[in-house]
TrEMBL record, chain A:
Name the UniProt record assigns to this protein: Succinate dehydrogenase hydrophobic membrane anchor subunit
Pfam families xrefs: Sdh_cyt
Molecular functions (GO terms): electron transfer activity; heme binding; metal ion binding
GO cellular component: plasma membrane
Obligatory cofactor(s): heme
Membrane topology: Multi-pass membrane protein
Transmembrane segments: 21-39, 59-79, 91-113
GO BP annotations, alphabetical order: cytochrome complex assembly; tricarboxylic acid cycle
TrEMBL record, chain B:
Record-given protein name: Succinate dehydrogenase flavoprotein subunit
Membrane topology qualifier: Peripheral membrane protein
Active site positions, chain numbering: 289 (proton acceptor)
Recorded catalytic activity of this chain's protein: a quinone + succinate = fumarate + a quinol
Record domain Fumarate reductase/succinate dehydrogenase flavoprotein-like C-terminal: where: 463-590
Source species: Halomonas nitroreducens
Binding site residues for FAD: 15-20, 38-53, 224, 390, 406-407
TrEMBL record, chain C:
Organism: Halomonas nitroreducens
Pfam families: Fer2_3, Fer4_17
Catalytic activity: a quinone + succinate = fumarate + a quinol
GO molecular function: 2 iron, 2 sulfur cluster binding; 3 iron, 4 sulfur cluster binding; 4 iron, 4 sulfur cluster binding; electron transfer activity; metal ion binding; succinate dehydrogenase (quinone) activity
UniProt family annotation: Belongs to the succinate dehydrogenase/fumarate reductase iron-sulfur protein family.
The name this protein goes by in its record: Succinate dehydrogenase iron-sulfur subunit
Function according to Swiss-Prot or TrEMBL: Two distinct, membrane-bound, FAD-containing enzymes are responsible for the catalysis of fumarate and succinate interconversion; the fumarate reductase is used in anaerobic growth, and the succinate dehydrogenase is used in aerobic growth.
InterPro entries (UniProt xref): 2Fe-2S_ferredoxin-like_sf, 4Fe4S_Fe-S-bd, 4Fe4S_Fe_S_CS, Beta-grasp_dom_sf, Helical_ferredxn, SDH/FRD_Iron-Sulfur, Succ_DH/fum_Rdtase_Fe-S, Succ_DH/fum_Rdtase_N
Organism ancestry: Bacteria, Pseudomonadati, Pseudomonadota, Gammaproteobacteria, Oceanospirillales
Length: 115, 590, 236
């Protein structure tokens, strides 16, 4: 067993599952958004705002954001462990990535529920 | 030179094939400081090429099977110069050794009842030849050797055996008393030469089929153990006995298992006739290998050979159907497509008798202890030296080995040697240390090559050696031809003594290894030639035009080749099994 | 004349500061030789050429190498299958350190093989005869046990190139599944526990180079899929 500390689950199986489940959620969310845009050709701000005012849409969006964050983390963690062999550079890059994901996630929540 | 690095072990096993790995496993379990020294990574050893199976009376195909019947077949197959105490040991201990392999994980094919699959092989009978064909060869499809070798390697990993992989043993080191106390070895990757000190040195170096131009043997089968023992002055037994396997693929020499005929395939000549019915009316295509090979050569000589040159025959398998071929002989389908460009489900495979197995070797007892003769011709144990597998001549195969008996030989006598060495080490072994000059003399030939400055190179000399052996010491032999061969070999030895190694580098120098191998091929070839010339009879695989009959009065004996005088002596065959009555020599028909 | 142009990767650490390609002309006499035969002919021209070989019939796994860009066994690859425009380029297996010429250091490859505990584990007292196994149970080992450890697959795998110390690689995983699939083996739980980290199995990205190059026609990707299924089924 290869030990590692920088990925969250410390399990390839959970990472693998997370990657696939989050992919499905993101696919559904994308389909929904694309479908919505197609069904509303003359979309204006009020309609768009109205959509995101509904609780179910906020929950669905939040789920998509969390999925995106998890998906990005697992994917980028894998890429960095593949290509960045010097430990210092790898840990630094991973730190930047995790901070960025955190910021984007919090920012996204704020957009959804904020003023 | 004297400040050679040294490594010390309780036992060093030279050779990582089936016999070496089985011996090593026994010793590793006992906790003795053991190492396997192999010139290739162990799973690349020639055992991996064994196809058809391991013959053993485990009573799976026939619940009434009896190891005594197997022993009878083995002794008869060997044309009565197999040692009966050794054949008895192998056949009676066999089931234990085979079940051990299964418990270690060997993926044997299975019958519906879950037991190990067994198929018929040549020379097998029930009830001491009276009960018809037996099916006694345990198989893992047609990849039994591969499955066996990998299983043994895996279990050595499990038991933390020390491996010196890609190391080449150069020569044995003897002390002042003539005891073997280790060897000189070279790490091929770095070129480092090391003095390996050991209380027990096991030669498990396999065969030497590469003395012939056409052989089923791997390129690594160069008789390294035989060469080392001969250079150390020890005698060899029954070296004239070389098995020619009936079915080597024409042109390529790759082996097609006897299991093909066991599963129902048969040989045909150019007229489509199943000619073995004439030569062996009862066993037909499943007669002894020597009998089948000779019959094939007779067909070819009498103008019934196949192909443009009429120089081979066909092995017909298409009637077995794709399902049987795919299930039982998948490797053969692959090999014949690759090397004969033939799909055996549709067309017959062109085959020709091809050098396959060395029945002779280092004479040993059933514990693997190497034997020489004292001045009176009595057996004398060589202290510190052991041999098992094809390199050894126990002898269970006599003048002709039965199919499937070599894998059994490997595991039974590899195991026996391991067990004996373990108990000997427990009782304590002390030999005189080798002196500097003892080590120096073992370094001699290595130094010779390293200091060579000009002369002929290895590839051409090797080719000449193989051609001499192929022409003079093939399936049929005769005096004048062999005399010429012996003379040519003497000349060749001179040329090899003056040969040149151009590449003197240290890192993975395969040219140096091939040069050292050539010396060994030379030793084996000469022992074979002298023994074949002197045995003036036909017995088993040794068949002479000028002496076509078996001569039990003069030659119901092992031959013993003494390298110092290049002389052929004799050694008594054992006719005293411990638990059964001995089998009297009879006329051998199938 | 049937001259074949052979371009060979050469490196001898004692004399060369860097590897280079060397050109040879080989007379095949019009025969469809195996690549290994061509190497023998080259070695007669240049005795110093280093490559591994043993059985010369595709069962020992010694002579895995990269032939015109694709990994395979030299002894069972006929020229007609691999030569393009009269030219043959031979390089060592990619991704492993080169010792000399076509000889690579297989240490990391073997280490990954050893890591999966490639031996049957069963602590039950063995019966006096063999352990029984039905033909159907035995059939599950077909396509797995035949591996010859030639390393053609693992050295064709980008995931193994990047993480040869952590990713078991297709060859090792094929053997891992060979024991997981064996009805006689009792260490399933322990074996799976050793494999569930993010590297050992899960670094496989399903590129399937392993399947494309396996000279024995085996399918490590399928075996890896089966291991994933077992890990999933075993998880709580």
């Amino acid at each position: 067993m290869v030990t590692n500390v920088t990925n969250f689950g410390r399990s390839g199986l959970s990472d693998w599952l997370v990657q696939r489940v989050s992919a499905i959620i993101l696919a559904l969310y994308s389909l929904f958004i694309v479908g919505y845009l197609l069904l509303h050709p003359g979309l204006d701000y009020m309609t768009w705002n109205g959509l995101f005012a509904q609780t179910w849409m906020r929950i669905f969006s939040l789920l998509a954001f969390v999925s995106l964050a998890a998906h990005a983390w697992v994917g980028l963690w894998t890429v960095t462990t593949d290509y960045l062999k010097p430990t210092g550079i790898r840990i630094a890059t991973q730190t930047v990535i995790i901070l960025a994901i955190f910021v984007f996630l919090v920012w996204g929540i704020q957009v959804l529920w904020g003023a | 030179m004297s400040n050679l690095r040294s490594l010390t072990f309780d036992a060093i096993i030279i050779g990582g094939g089936g016999a070496g790995l089985r011996a090593a496993l026994e010793l590793a379990k006992s906790g003795k400081k053991t190492a396997v020294l192999s010139k290739v990574f162990p799973t690349r050893s020639h055992t991996v090429s064994a196809q058809g199976g391991i013959t053993c009376a485990i009573a799976s195909a026939d619940p009434n099977d009896d190891w005594r019947w197997h022993m009878y077949d083995t002794v008869k197959g060997g044309d009565y110069i197999a040692d009966q105490d050794a054949a008895e040991y192998m056949c009676s201990e066999g089931p234990k050794a085979v079940f051990e392999l299964e418990h270690m994980g060997l993926p044997f094919s299975r019958f519906d009842n879950g037991r190990i699959y067994q198929r018929p092989f040549g020379g097998q009978s029930k009830n001491f030849g009276e009960g018809g064909q037996a099916a006694r060869t345990c198989a893992a499809a047609d990849r039994t050797g591969h499955a066996l070798l990998h299983t043994l390697y895996q279990n050595n990993l499990k038991n933390n055996t020390t491996f010196l992989n890609e190391w080449y043993a150069v020569d044995l080191v003897k002390n002042a008393n003539g005891d073997v106390v280790g060897c000189i070895a070279m790490d091929i990757e770095t070129g480092d030469v090391v003095h390996v000190k050991s209380k027990a040195t096991v030669l498990a170096t396999g065969g030497s089929g590469r003395i012939y131009a056409s052989t089923t043997n791997a390129l690594i089968n160069t008789g390294d153990g035989i060469g080392m023992a001969l250079r150390a002055g020890f005698p060899m037994q029954d070296m004239e006995m070389w098995q020619f396997h009936p079915t080597g693929i024409y042109g390529a020499g790759t082996l097609v298992t006897e299991g093909c005929r066991g599963e129902g395939g048969y040989l045909i000549n150019k007229d489509g006739e199943r000619f073995m019915e004439r030569y062996a009316p009862n066993a037909k295509d499943l007669a002894g290998r020597d009998v089948v090979a000779r019959s094939m050569v007779m067909e070819i000589l009498e103008g019934r050979g196949c192909g443009e040159k009429g120089d081979h025959v066909y092995l017909k398998l298409d009637h077995l159907g794709e399902e049987v071929l795919g299930k039982r002989l998948p490797g053969i389908v692959e090999l014949s497509k690759t090397f004969a460009h033939v799909d055996p489900a549709k067309e017959p495979i062109p085959v020709v008798p091809t050098c396959h197995y060395m029945m002779g070797g280092v004479p040993t007892n059933v514990h693997g202890q190497a034997i020489m003769q004292d001045a009176e011709g009595n057996d004398k144990i060589i202290n510190g030296l052991f041999a098992c597998g094809e390199a050894a001549c126990v002898s269970v195969h006599g003048a002709n080995r039965l199919g499937g008996n070599s894998l059994l030989d490997l595991v039974v006598f590899g195991r026996a040697a391991g067990m004996f060495i373990e108990s000997a080490l427990n009782e304590g072994i002390e030999y005189l240390e080798a002196s500097e000059s003892d080590v120096e003399s073992a370094m001699k030939r290595m130094n010779r090559w390293n200091e060579s400055e000009s002369g002929e190179t290895v590839p051409e000399l090797k080719r000449d050696l193989q051609d001499i052996m192929q022409n003079a010491f093939g399936v049929f032999r005769q005096e004048d031809n062999m005399q010429k061969g012996v003379k040519q070999l003497a000349e060749l030895r001179e040329r090899i003594n003056n040969a040149y190694l151009p590449d003197k580098s240290n890192t993975f120098n395969t040219a140096r290894v091939e040069a050292l191998e050539l010396d060994n091929l030379m030793e084996v070839a000469e022992a074979t030639a002298v023994a074949a010339l002197e045995r003036k009879e036909s017995r088993g695989a040794h068949s002479r035009y000028d002496y076509p009959d078996r001569d039990d009065v003069n030659w119901l004996k092992h031959s013993m080749y003494f390298p110092a005088e290049k002389r052929l002596g004799q050694r008594e065959v054992n006719f005293a099994p411990k638990t059964v009555d001995m089998f009297e020599p009879k006329v051998r028909t199938y | 004349m049937s001259k074949l142009q052979v371009s060979l990767y050469r490196y001898n650490p004692e004399t060369d500061s860097a590897p280079y390609m060397e050109e040879f002309q080989v007379d095949t006499q019009g025969r469809d030789l195996m690549v290994l035969d061509v190497l023998h002919l080259v070695k007669e021209q240049d005795n110093g050429l280093a490559y591994r070989r043993s059985c010369r019939e595709g069962v020992c796994g010694s002579d895995g190498m990269n032939m015109n860009g694709k990994n395979g066994l030299a002894c069972i690859t006929p020229l007609s299958e691999v030569v393009k425009k009269g030219k043959l380029t031979l390089r060592p297996l990619p991704g492993l350190p080169v010792i000399r010429d076509l000889v690579v250091d297989m240490g990391l490859f073997y280490k990954q093989y050893e890591r999966i505990q490639p031996y049957l584990q069963n602590d039950q007292p063995a019966p006096a005869i063999e352990r029984l196994q039905s033909p159907e149970e035995r059939d599950k080992l077909d396509g797995l046990y035949e591996c010859i450890l030639c390393a053609c697959c693992s050295t064709a795998c980008p995931s193994f190139w990047w993480n040869p110390d952590k990713f078991v690689g297709p060859a090792g995983l094929l053997q891992a599944y060979r024991f997981l699939a064996d009805s006689r083996d009792e260490a399933t739980r322990e074996r799976l526990a050793e494999l569930e980290d993010p590297f050992s199995v899960f670094r496989c990205r399903g590129i399937m180079n392993c399947v494309a190059v396996c000279p024995k026609g085996l399918n490590p990707t399928r075996a890896i899929g089966k291991i994933r299924e077992m890990l999933l089924a075993n998880a709580t």
